[in-house]
Amino acid sequence: MTVEKILLEFDPEQKNLLPALKKINAAFGYVGEEEARKAADYFSVPFSKVYETASFYDLVKTKKQPNLVIQVCSGANCAVKNSFKVIREIESQLRIKAGDDFNPKVKLEIISCLGQCGQGPVMVVNGNVFARVTPSSVDDILRNYI
After folding, report:
1. Which CATH number belongs to the domain containing residue 81 in this structure?
2. What would the pLDDT profile of 114-146 be if each residue is shown by its tens digit?
3. What range defines the domain where residue 33 resides?
């Protein structure tokens, strides 16, 4: 699959920019500068509009992602149920900081609501969702990925 083939699946109307970027992201793992320029040309919008759209949404990445991506919900219900303690435990175990891009192998992201408020705190590891996560369950979850 190429970027061009993906773009041709969409009418070149601005309303299709985000769906196309999501599909490019799914195919390649991110929307890099080259892919963004091709999308800008196809949709006849400035490169800055493509980058603005891609970088606004958590589901579209503008950089190649590490092998291990951990996301923890910080929405109100998860926060009340100690999601920030879960984040601190992950930071401690992996010796990383949430939001830092310094480690090429692991990334920890604090993200907004995942729509599973009754199951919080919610943690996503490489797309796999874990509910009712506690600081003491972090080690068992991460053991399967490290």
Report:
1. 3.40.30.10
2. 888 889 899 999 989 999 999 999 999 999 888
3. 3-56
pLDDT tens, position by position, 65-119: 788 999 999 988 989 999 999 999 999 999 999 988 888 899 999 988 888 888 9
72 and 139 part of one domain: yes
**How many domains is the chain built from?**
2
Residue 62 lies in a domain: no
Token readout for 105 is 């192998």
pTM: 0.68
Instruction: Pick the closest to residue 93 from 138, 145, 141 (CA basis).
Output: 138
Is 130 within the bounds of a domain? yes
Please enumerate, as own/partner, the contacts of 27-34 that have beta carbons within 8 Å and a separation of 24 or more: 27/1, 28/3, 29/61, 29/64, 29/65, 30/60, 30/61, 30/62, 30/63, 30/64, 30/65, 31/60, 31/61, 31/62, 32/62, 32/63, 32/64, 34/3
Q: Residues 72, 97: one domain? A: yes
